[in-house]
Design a protein that fits this description.
The complex is a heterodimer of chains A (365) and B (353). Chain A contains 16 helices and eleven strands. Chain A is α/β, with parallel strands linked by helices and 365 residues long. Chain A folds into two domains: 311 residues, HypD, alpha/beta domain 2 (Rossmann fold); 48 residues, no CATH class. In chain A, the strands form two sheets. In chain A, strands 4-3-5-6-11-10 form a six-stranded mixed beta sheet, sandwiched between helices. Chain A has a five-stranded parallel beta sheet with strand order 2-1-7-8-9, with helices on both faces. Chain B has two domains: 112 residues, 60s Ribosomal Protein L30, Chain: A (2-Layer Sandwich), CATH 3.30.1330; 158 residues, Phosphoribosyl-aminoimidazole Synthetase, Chain A, domain 2 (Alpha-Beta Complex). Chain B has a seven-stranded mixed beta sheet. In chain B, strands 1-2-7-5-6 form a five-stranded mixed beta sheet, covered by helices on one side. A two-stranded antiparallel sheet of chain B has the order 3-4. In chain B, strand 13 and strand 14 form a beta hairpin. The longest helix of chain B has 18 residues. Classes of the chains: A alpha/beta (365), B alpha+beta (353). At the A-B interface, helix 1, helix 2, helix 3, helix 6 and helix 16 of A face helix 8 and strand 14 of B.
């Protein structure tokens, strides 16, 4: 496949891995933020290719994983209401709430639909004027523009039966939390290319200046990630800390202005709880008061549900890069994708699930 | 939960899910949930020495003749798709389950569950297609049944077919017979059926239209078994795709498998569609492909036998059976590294990003 196979080329990948091993004088600790990148690392066994030259730890960038348990419980409660159609991306369906998941609510008669695009949910609201359609709007900065578009479209159409249950998290505040931790050991970051396609690279400049840790914006294919790692290692070896862009075929420094403006019309920055980590200041997006009629939290007056994570789960340690999934005594025994104890095991892009799915043959349990 | 006192619910551990289980769509996906249903519901109630083998067909003896029996229900939506329809699929699917047992298919039955209001013309088209598929395969439909349910109780039209065949003398195929060193072959491109259905269902337009691979494989199997008797196991990787089939064989034989990712034949269009939809072709359904586990010494003979048949011209050796990592299927990636190819819990779900 053109424009894809080039980035999976075995010779290029092996060449980059050899260069990383050659250039690295000590095992630099690097973190990829995005779950999509973790998925690629595990799927292609890039850790195997790099040996001891760098230590890869996996960041909190799986939006499915970090969606708070109470938000999931709210989605489940909405889906069970008669007269409500809950519309979601596919991978939210298996995520367990406190007592059940969307698959089970669907089996019990709840109207749960899967779509690829939030505008399909708007279409559904138009077609079923008698039902309330709620879109479960989960994601990072990447999905926010499409969610904002859906709200604007619904407003333009004058729909009174469409709303979104928004759970958006922002990447730079999470990196700030990581770097501010006294226990931080991450020396360089691969920033998620798709997020930067929307928001650009400017916010990362502030982080680099403040914490003197290099950040390379990276893509999602094996060659992208290896190249980003090489760029980080070169910076670290030379004692530099800068924002560099590996994903030049998609990311421009200023990002996508139109998308940013669309997001800013509908959403505003707010404090946000991350499942498995806790509350992070100014790390999320909430629907502006102006669009309250499209905010499911307000439309349905969803009272806050208090939900506790199982104490055994070390998800905060994993999501902040202090520990590897395999350091957890429950990994692949009491905690599996079928019966996850916590955030990083719930979606295929979570670090624990990626290890479980692709790498457990290399682990002695 | 609703019938539980509030205080109790509040103290209950959030995970795992409670035992008020219901049937989910995933129970029909051919993955782990389907296996759970067999283990927890069907085998405890119905288990017997033949059923317990869990092959795609039962093999029973009558006066020294070994008969293969299999049954399958077809609920595909939409009823008509590129490369086939529910009628041809119902014929091919059951013939294939017989063929995978090394049997020559002899007779089929067809039972219809029709939804009130279904246009008769739709039924006529489906039945004509069944007739054509059965005639082309040389396997007659010798008995049948029709039921009609109220509007809303079925999705247009469901078909069940049962097949009876005669197992060839000297042939004994089973998922429990894979041995370290054996070669693993597939008969052609993977994922065509699943992508054709999904494209139709989601109204997706690709540059090239992918067609379902729905086909009767009994003549391909006959060619293979004439060429070599060193075939240990045949399976058709339908629901759950190649990965589920290989995981089943590897578990049943208590062996490991190592696959070579670059050897696995997947059409460019199917790869593209999977990239776009966030799916892995290893888990996408096929309706006209087989997986063969063959003794290493017979691998080339088997490959040649498959390739000279029109339905096997893109056959490939994709890996081998190993004594390492028993019950685990491991893929060697194009980068020379390895990863697990797991069985899915339920259906593949498109990812957010």
């Amino acid at each position: 496949m053109k424009y894809l196979d080039e980035y999976r080329d075995a010779n290029i990948a092996r060449g980059l891995a050899a260069e990383i091993r050659r250039r690295s004088t000590r095992p630099w600790v690097l973190m990829e933020i995005c779950g999509g990148q973790t998925h690629t690392l595990m799927r292609y066994g890039i850790d195997e290719l790099l040996g001891e030259s760098v230590q890869l730890v996996h960041g909190p960038g799986c939006p499915v994983c970090v969606t708070p348990l109470e938000t999931i419980d709210r989605a489940l409660a909405l889906a069970a209401l008669p007269g409500v159609t809950l519309v979601s991306y596919g991978d939210m369906l298996r995520v367990p709430g406190s007592n059940t998941d969307l698959f089970h609510v669907k089996a019990e008669g709840g109207d749960v639909r899967v779509v690829y695009s939030p505008t399909d949910a708007v279409k559904l609201a138009r077609l079923q004027p008698g039902r309330k359609v709620v879109f479960f709007a989960v994601g990072f900065e990447t999905t926010a523009p499409a969610h904002a578009m859906a709200v604007l479209q619904a407003a333009r159409l004058g729909l009174h039966n469409f709303s979104i249950l928004a759970s958006h998290v922002l990447v730079p505040p999470a990196i700030r939390t990581l770097l501010s931790s006294p226990r931080n050991r991450v020396q360089g970051f691969i920033a998620p290319g798709h997020v930067c396609t929307i928001v650009g690279c400017r916010e990362y400049e502030d982080l680099v200046r403040e914490f003197h840790a290099p950040i390379v914006v990276g893509g999602f294919e094996p060659v992208d990630i290896l190249e980003a790692i090489r760029m980080l290692v070169v910076q670290l070896e030379e004692g530099r800390a800068e924002v560099e862009n590996q994903y030049v075929r998609s990311v421009q420094y200023q990002g996508n202005r139109l998308a940013q403006e669309t997001v800013a019309r509908v959403f505003e920055v707010a404090d946000r709880k991350w499942r498995g980590i806790g509350s992070i200041p100014v790390s999320g997006l909430r629907v502006k008061d102006e669009f309250a009629a499209f905010d499911a939290e307000r439309v349905f007056e969803l009272s806050s549900v208090c939900a506790e994570e199982p104490a055994e789960c070390i998800s905060a340690e994993v999501l902040l890069g202090h520990k590897k999934p395999t350091d957890c005594p429950a990994f692949a025994t009491r905690c599996t994708p079928d019966k996850p104890l916590g955030a990083p095991m719930v979606s295929s892009e979570g670090a624990c699930a990626a290890y479980y799915q692709y790498r457990r043959h290399l682990v002695t349990l | 939960m609703s019938d539980e006192p509030k205080e109790l619910a509040a103290f209950s551990c959030p995970l795992p899910l409670p035992a008020r289980e219901r049937i989910l769509l995933g129970h029909g996906s051919g993955g782990k949930l389907s296996a759970d249903l067999l283990k927890d519901v069907f085998l405890p109630a119905l288990g017997n020495p033949v059923l317990n083998l869990l092959e795609d067909q039962a093999i029973v003896s009558l006066n020294g003749i070994r008969l293969a029996i299999t049954t399958d229900s077809f609920v595909v939506k939409p009823l008509f798709f590129r490369g086939g329809d529910i009628g041809s699929l119902a014929v091919h699917g059951t013939i294939n389950d017989l063929a995978m047992g090394g049997a020559e298919p002899l007779w089929l039955s067809a039972a219809f569950i029709l939804e009130e209001g279904l246009p008769t013309e739709t039924l006529r088209r489906v039945v004509a297609s069944m007739h054509q598929a059965a005639a082309e395969a040389g396997v007659p439909i010798v008995t049948g049944d029709t039921k009609v349910v109220e509007k809303g109780s079925a999705d247009g039209l469901f078909i069940n077919t049962t097949g009876i065949g005669r197992v060839r003398d000297g042939i004994s195929l089973s998922a429990s017979q894979a041995q370290p060193g054996d070669a693993i072959l597939v008969s052609g491109f993977l994922g065509d059926h699943g992508i054709a259905i999904l494209a139709e269902r989601e109204g997706l337009q690709f540059e090239t239209q992918v067609q379902s691979d729905s086909a009767a494989l009994h003549t391909l199997v006959a060619r293979l078994l004439e060429a070599t008797r060193e075939v240990r196991c045949l399976r058709d990787p339908t629901r759950g795709g190649l990965s589920s089939t290989l995981n089943e064989i590897s578990a049943s034989s208590s062996v490991g498998m190592e696959l070579n990712e670059t050897s696995i034949p997947v059409r460019e269009e199917v790869r593209g569609a999977c990239e776009m939809l966030g799916l892995d072709p290893m888990y996408v359904a096929n309706e006209g492909k087989l997986v063969a586990v063959v003794a290493a010494s017979a691998a080339q003979t088997a490959l040649h036998a498959l390739r000279v048949h029109p339905l096997g011209k893109n056959a490939a050796i994709i890996g081998h059976v190993t004594a390492d990592h028993p019950r685990m299927v491991v893929m060697r990636t194009p980068l020379g590294t390895t990863r697990i190819v797991d069985m899915l819990a339920g259906d593949q779900l498109p990812r957010i990003c």
